[in-house]
Design goal:
The chain is mainly alpha-helical and 315 residues long. The chain has twelve helices and five strands.
């Protein structure tokens, strides 16, 4: 007699016994630590948003992207929704919210950083030689157009995948005979799920390429260096997750997923925003137009005036 998926039978036994159901509960110490870390992350995001709003017209905030900074911070807070749904008994709603916000708004964050890196490269290396390109870029608001396209492409992939084949909980009975782990089957629709992951990876590659291309910009101008370091941290974090996914097969596998998401969000926050907050609060002498002009002068004495003009006109 074959037992059900949620039952098991010891060798020689004549009866099926119910398997023990396991999943990470909200009251689990590891889950509490990760959720506390997420709440702290949200507090940081609120504090940075207020600080940037109060110093909106300063060179540091403008060079960091101006209004784009608030979009990135908003997307980071929306990405954090996924962390909370990594715990508790999986349902269809939990499985959808466990990955969809992180994939969708994480794509927008990467698009913002990619566009900002490209714009910085243009300011320092292209606009001075081709001013018509700058007028074209500003006239048609290419930054926001590209970010909107990325958002709609990823949203279309995730929504279509959810409608055609929604992620759902399933009992993982492969690794243990006397218990089963309730997991979310995100890759039920392989094409939709894989396309979302590949799209996110392509955005990561584009962002890394543009940021690394600007590695020889002014010595003290660390915008693209911060983005490059953030992208490298991202890949290390997800290598850590893949390693944990390969080694561990118990219920705490979901802890690895939640921790990777949280570390990824902290990487964005600390690499890109904290250094700017440090300048605003503790080094106000570096938050002046004259300071940025001096950086540009040091970078290129021959074309300094042109570069400075394009730098401030594009912020």
């Amino acid at each position: 007699m074959k037992c059900k998926d949620t039952e098991w039978s010891a060798e020689g036994s004549k009866a099926c016994k119910p398997r023990q159901l396991e999943y990470v509960q909200f009251s689990d110490p590891a889950a509490i630590c990760i959720m506390t870390g997420t709440v702290i992350l949200l507090a940081f995001i609120v504090a940075i948003s207020v600080l940037f709003a109060l110093n909106y017209n300063t060179p540091v905030v403008r060079s960091a992207g101006g209004p784009m900074c608030f979009l990135i911070l908003g997307c980071l807070s929306l990405c954090s929704i996924s962390v909370f749904f990594c715990f508790g008994k999986p349902t269809i709603v939990f499985c959808i919210l466990r990955y969809t916000p992180f994939f969708l708004f994480g794509s927008v964050c990467l698009a913002c950083l990619a566009v900002h890196s490209f714009k910085i490269i243009c300011i320092f290396k292209i606009f001075a030689k081709l001013p018509i390109l700058q007028r074209y870029w500003r006239k048609y608001h290419r930054s926001w157009l590209i970010i909107s396209i990325v958002f709609f492409i990823q949203a279309a992939q995730l929504i279509s995948g959810t409608i055609l084949s929604p992620p759902e909980p399933y009992p993982d009975t492969f690794w243990y005979s006397d218990k089963y782990i309730l997991r979310c089957y995100f890759f039920k629709n392989h094409k939709a799920s894989l396309s979302s992951c590949v799209f996110l990876f392509i955005l990561w590659l584009i962002t890394l390429f543009f940021s690394y291309t600007g590695r020889n910009l002014p010595k003290n101008y660390n915008e693209v260096r911060a983005i490059t370091f953030c992208m490298l941290q991202q890949i290390l974090i997800w290598i850590f997750f893949a390693t944990g996914y390969t080694i561990h097969h118990g219920k705490y596998l979901q802890i690895f997923s939640a921790l990777a998401m949280l570390l990824s969000l902290y990487s964005y926050l600390f690499n890109y925003f904290i250094s700017k907050c440090n300048i605003i609060i503790f080094k106000p002498e570096q938050n002046t137009q004259q300071y940025f002009q001096d950086l540009i002068l040091d970078y290129s004495m021959q074309s300094s005036q042109l570069v400075a003009h394009h730098f401030y006109s594009c912020l």
